Amino acid sequence: MSDVILFDLYGVIARTQTEQARERLVELAGVPGERFWKAYWDCRPDYDAGLGSAAYWENVAARLGTTFADVAALTAADLDSWSESDPEMVALVNELADEGRTLGLLSNIIEDLVPVWERSDWLKRFAARTFSCRIGVAKPDPRAYEVAAGQLGVPVERILFLDDSEVNVRAALAVGMAAEVFTSAAQVRKLVGGAPTW
């Protein structure tokens, strides 16, 4: 039984990019998909740690040896591609909060996306929201987990962490958290079954 649950955002509560959204980004970039995505992800850690959007896209373009015709459109399409939540998981978040669980969020996220999620009522159910762009460090760096635990006000050993990335889960285990690779809402219900323990 777990009374303190730390969630990843993307791939858990929020949906990842659809194929249609990915195709739109490649079209706007005007670069073949394989090359584009390598540069996109290689430059992402600095973006997640607080780099501005203009500088991020400048770095991506430099990796590709090109310039982008419309950075504003690329930025808007990118933000849109990361802005959809999973209704089943949102319902579970509300359910767990109603049961008295302490919920935390630890997300690798860019600053421009934080206001998108802050408009969501369900985000208020989290006792602590740890965003990589605001702490200057991203998962799987151990410091990200330590900051999240500090913001929750509990020792790492009391936290169950759920993330869709095995690398991030291994890092959480290494700092002393219980952790599982997220697969479904049903899995979470099974893991946290029973009344909260205090």
What distance lies between the first and last C-alpha atoms, to the nearest angstrom?
10 Å
Integer average pLDDT: 95
Helical content stands at 40-55%
- The count of DSSP E runs of length 2 or more, i.e. the number of strands, is 5
What's the gist of this structure?
The protein is of the alpha/beta class.
Describe the structure.
This protein is α/β, with parallel strands linked by helices and 198 residues long. It is built from eleven helices and five strands, in the order βααααααβαβααβαβα. Helix 1 (19-29) packs antiparallel against helix 5 (71-81) and helix 2 (33-42) crosses helix 4. The chain is globular, with a radius of gyration of 18 Å.
SSE inventory with pairings:
Blueprint: E1 4-7, H1 19-29, H2 33-42, H3 44-48, H4 53-64, H5 71-81, H6 87-98, E2 102-107, H7 114-118, E3 128-131, H8 132-135, H9 142-152, E4 159-163, H10 166-174, E5 178-181, H11 185-191
How would you describe this structure in keywords?
5 strands, 198 residues, 11 helices, alpha/beta, 49% helix
